[in-house]
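Progress report, Aim 2. The chain analyzed during this reporting quarter is listed below.
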Amino acid sequence: MSGDVALLIGNSDGIGLETTKRLLDIGYNVTGISRSASTIENSSYNHIVVDVSSDEYREVLSRSLSLRKIDLCIFFVGIGERFDPNNIRFETKVFEVNLLAGVITTELVINDMIKNNHGHFIGLSSIADLAPSQEAPSYNASKSALTNYWEGLALALSKTNVRISNIRFGFVNTKM
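Predicted structure tokens for the chain:
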């Protein structure tokens, strides 16, 4: 692990922040990308502030991938709230952040890993992907789509040196 390179998306708090600390502890060089500044100060850590749903995210991610070969990428991003009929726009935002940013990240990172014939992509999804929800319809649907995409992609790449893992969390004590 020492000297391996990790790219962590959505790592300024919660599970992403704790994973960042752990990877640094075991010797990874880590680049984090999130919409908030990081509290981590470590010579093996670089942090980039950009919202994954912004127009510049694709370019920022592409630039990060061009700097060095990535051994590990973890996509931690996820937003969701209870459905509010007075704020339907938020439903679209959930799909932009959870699903579209996940697909864009997967596209760019997996393309890079295939080119390098090496890498492990880990996506964090949710057990909420199992069923429709009247409480959080966009959250459940976006996580369901990601789960199916990542698990299908893992099967499609099973004969390569690129690995994809989909982790389906249950309830975790985070700000969400």
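The chain has a mean pLDDT of 90. Helices lie at 14-25, 57-67, 88-116, 137-156. These observations will guide the mutagenesis work planned for the next reporting period.
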